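Reminder to self: tokens first, then the designed residues, so the page reads top to bottom the way the pipeline ran.
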């Protein structure tokens, strides 16, 4: 085939691939983008979902935090085989937190507590999965076994990468499309919106998609390790120990020995960290002759997703092993890519850009799904033909996912305030409520004409989000009238953000109602 004929054929093939890769995985990708984008404000969501916690004060001195945490653990988790003290240094870990894990046969094998650094007492905060649980759903898919979820997410991410690359090939006027938006033009408007959302956030989309695949590289390419280390669990363990060498740990000696004073140990660690903060202390077999204390540096010191680790003998304080954050070029490249994906290092301005880019990713997927139905609905109306069952199914899935998923996530926040604080498995039930609500909204979308479904769920979304600050005021003492004057921006920011979301959905519903009253289509409309 000659060159002039090859180019149109190539673009046609790329357009077909772009369309179907986006459609087949579009709803899953939308779910991943929405829940993944929450990760950039997971700490703020955590704060709202635990209103009993006071405003955070960071950073906290490592030696003071260590003494407070150690005293609490010695009293409340004396028999545990592992203690962890997380030291607040920035927004990623804003509270002094301790966790412990015992033997599987222990009555309380694991636990966690947020501590008041002044008194050493645990805050009586409600049990909740918080923002981390919502964020982790974008790759764990919540109810699925992790290996299954990783493969599903990995395949969807690969298809997303294919859709992005083919979209670049298809759009000949990619920079012109950046400045073009024609409102009120139906299908043309949806295409313009899709192009703008895609082009504006293109560097982010490429980075977040490729880095997502790097996260799953060990699941997707296991034979790369098998060729060098051999098959089976033994070969896999040898590979992981070389790439991620473990600290010098050993089994318990079952011989009590007092632990070394932490002040001298932390002073040595700070000297080796060259001024970087200590973010975590890990105790293996505390109070035992085989005790080990691992000092962890700062994972969020820069885009390199790694930290220096120093492991000391828990009895003598002697340094036993160290693992630098930079060990090789290939590992550093992987750590850099993963660090860019998570954005833990980002300051307020860069974090805001991450958040905007994530929301544009949600809009890119959503507009692509609506555009698919708008094209085919227009074609069916022009041919005066009945819409294909597949088209009607996609229309309903769009309603129940693009609007239904945000509504379902709002119900999770409602559940956080309304479920009894002493309910067993309370954090799990918050997420159960989310998925029950989402299933109900998908059913509602399936039973209603598409245009009515968009309108009704848009109004529901407006109410679900806009009334959250009211619910917060009725159920806690940490409402906007308190949080704003006190400068508690984590709580106030959440309330203001959901109020803005509610107003945005109310604006969408008003526009849909106005359009419906003007046009009154003969058949069920496919898109908002």
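Designed residues (528 positions):
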């Amino acid at each position: 085939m000659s060159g002039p004929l090859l180019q149109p054929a190539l673009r046609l093939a790329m357009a077909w691939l772009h369309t179907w890769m986006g459609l087949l995985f579009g709803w899953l990708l939308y779910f991943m983008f929405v829940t993944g984008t929450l990760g950039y404000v997971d700490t703020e969501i955590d704060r709202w979902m635990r209103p009993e916690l006071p405003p955070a004060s960071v950073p906290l001195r490592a030696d003071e935090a260590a003494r407070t945490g150690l005293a609490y653990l010695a009293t409340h988790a004396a028999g545990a085989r592992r203690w962890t003290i997380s030291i607040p240094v920035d927004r990623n870990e804003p509270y002094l937190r301790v966790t412990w894990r015992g033997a599987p046969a222990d009555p309380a094998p694991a636990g966690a507590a947020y501590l008041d650094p002044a008194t050493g007492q645990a805050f009586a905060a409600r049990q909740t999965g918080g923002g981390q649980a919502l964020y982790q759903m974008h790759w764990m898919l919540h109810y699925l076994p992790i290996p299954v979820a990783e493969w599903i997410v990995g395949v969807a991410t690969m298809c997303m990468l294919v859709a992005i690359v083919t979209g670049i090939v298809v759009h000949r006027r990619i920079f012109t499309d950046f400045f073009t938006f024609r409102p009120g033009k139906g299908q043309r408007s949806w295409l313009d919106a899709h192009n703008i959302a895609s082009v504006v956030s293109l560097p982010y989309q490429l980075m977040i998609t490729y880095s997502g695949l790097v996260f799953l590289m060990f699941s997707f390419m296991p034979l790369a390790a098998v060729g060098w280390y051999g098959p089976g669990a033994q070969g896999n363990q040898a590979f992981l120990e070389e790439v991620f060498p473990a600290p010098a740990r050993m089994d318990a000696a079952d011989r009590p020995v007092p632990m070394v004073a932490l002040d001298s140990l932390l002073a040595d660690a700070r000297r080796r960290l060259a001024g970087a903060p200590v973010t975590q202390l890990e105790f293996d077999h505390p109070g035992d002759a085989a005790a080990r204390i691992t000092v962890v540096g700062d994972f969020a010191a820069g885009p390199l997703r790694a930290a220096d680790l120093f492991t000391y003998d828990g009895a003598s304080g002697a340094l036993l092993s160290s693992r630098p954050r930079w060990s090789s070029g290939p590992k550093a490249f992987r750590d850099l890519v993963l660090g860019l994906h998570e954005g833990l290092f980002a300051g307020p301005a860069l974090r805001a850009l991450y958040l905007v880019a994530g929301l544009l990713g949600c809009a890119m997927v959503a507009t692509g799904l609506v555009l698919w139905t708008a094209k085919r609905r227009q074609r069916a109306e022009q041919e005066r033909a009945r819409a294909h069952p597949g088209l009607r199914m996609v229309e309903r899935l769009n309603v129940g996912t693009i609007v239904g998923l945000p509504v379902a996530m709002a119900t999770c926040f409602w559940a956080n305030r309304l479920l009894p604080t002493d309910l067993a498995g309370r954090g799990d039930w918050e997420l159960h409520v989310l998925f029950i609500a989402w299933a109900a909204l998908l059913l509602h979308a399936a039973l209603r004409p598409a245009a009515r479904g968009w309108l009704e769920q848009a109004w529901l979304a407006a109410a679900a989000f806009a009334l959250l600050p009211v619910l917060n005021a009725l159920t806690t003492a940490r409402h906007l009238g308190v949080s704003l004057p006190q400068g508690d921006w984590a709580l106030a920011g959440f309330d203001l953000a959901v109020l803005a979301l509610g107003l945005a959905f109310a604006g969408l519903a008003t526009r849909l109602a106005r359009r419906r009253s003007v046009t009154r289509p003969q058949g069920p409309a496919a898109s908002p």
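Residues 348-382 form the longest helix (35 residues).
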